[in-house]
Design a protein that fits this description.
By secondary structure, the chain is mainly alpha-helical. It is built from 8 helices and 4 strands, in the order αβααβααβαβαα.
């Protein structure tokens, strides 16, 4: 295994430990935008209620909302830079900077887990511990430079 793969695997296990016991909820871009807009609304709308409930679930440490590289790339397609930054800030907050591995890395991990299970190697970490990364590692460091302080 290459150095970067070992690094990602070790960090993945550490990340899994930080979110163990919490419900993991994946949202696509549409729902991230609904949440972002709901938090900005002053009227008592469904979007506002849902957004505040999700914040409560996150702050109570019952849930975490990791993202995929696909969602991150979709965020980049937003034409309004202000909306893009607000969406990214919300994603970063509720995901705690945690993302599921990209497709190519996840396929390697899934194959390794399948193979090692079938050759009866029991001390290999479970798949659910090896699929996590941090935002910059799945989409490149340039994406992370969009972060601005709230």
């Amino acid at each position: 295994m290459r150095f970067i793969d070992k690094y990602i695997a070790k960090n993945s296990i550490d990340i899994h430990a930080t979110i163990a016991g919490r419900k993991i909820i994946y949202l696509d871009l549409k729902y991230w935008i609904i949440l972002r807009d709901g938090l900005e609304q002053e009227n008592d709308t469904v979007a506002r209620k849902v957004a505040h409930r999700i914040i409560e679930l996150y702050e109570s440490r019952k849930c975490v909302f990791p993202v995929s590289e696909v969602v991150l790339w979709e965020i980049l397609k937003q034409e309004d830079k202000n909306s893009l930054i607000k969406t990214f800030q919300l994603v970063e907050r509720l995901s705690e900077g945690i993302a599921i591995l990209g497709d190519q890395q996840r396929v390697k991990v899934e194959f390794a887990c399948w193979y090692l299970t079938n050759v009866k190697i029991d001390d290999f970490p479970k798949l659910e511990k090896l699929v996590w990364s941090k935002l910059p590692l799945i989409s490149g460091y340039f994406f992370y430079s969009l972060k601005v302080e709230v």
